[in-house]
Amino acid sequence: MATINCFEDLEIWKMAREFCNDVFRITNYENFSRDFRMKDQIKASSGSIMDNIAEGFERNGNKEFVQFLYFSKGSCGESRSQLYRALDFKYITEDEFIVLKNKTLQISQAIGGFIKYLNNSEIKGTKYK
Predict the structure, then answer these.
(1) pLDDT tens, residue by residue, 41-51
(2) How many CA atoms lie less than 13 Å away from 54 in the CB half-sphere?
(3) How far is residue 106's CA from residue 12's CA, in Å, rounded to a whole number?
């Protein structure tokens, strides 16, 4: 794996950023935008996916990074659950739901793979050089 110098270079962070932007877009729909609690909740959980990746990376140690990646993975599941509610409440279409749900599954799988990589890596982060 190539050396990554900043969290913005991580593919998982880029995927999470794209998903967060997708969520922002759907929360502007008329019905969705009026459900302030739901709108705030899904925007927060989707943002938390990318934010925890960034925060963990900046800790400069694999153990802490892995811990934050698990937080990120949890936020991904939370966002997926909220997408089901958005579908049930008719805030989004079935097609939008499928696309966004699949994105959360891809992000979660990618984070899981990265966790596995970090746990098996000889490199333990710049904090421990």
Answers:
(1) 999 999 999 99
(2) 11
(3) 9
Measured from the Cβ of residue 111, the count of other Cβ atoms closer than 10 Å reads 25
Structure tokens given for 68: 């934050």
Phi-psi map region of 2: left, alpha, beta (phi>0 left; psi -120 to 50 alpha): beta
Query: For residue 95, how many other CB atoms are within 10 A of its CB?
Result: 8
Rounded to the nearest 5 degrees, what angle is found at the Cα of 44, between the Cα atoms of 88 and 87? 10
Using N-to-C axis directions, what is the helix angle for 62-88 and 11-26, rounded to 10°?
Answer: 30
Q: Which two tokens stand for residue 112?
A: 């899981």
For residue 47, what are its two tokens?
């943002």
Of 76, 100, 78, which Cα lies nearest the Cα of 13? Answer: 76
Reported as a single tens digit per residue, the pLDDT across 63-111 is 999 999 999 999 999 999 999 999 999 999 999 999 999 999 999 999 9
pTM (2 decimals)?
0.91
Determine the residue type at 113.
G
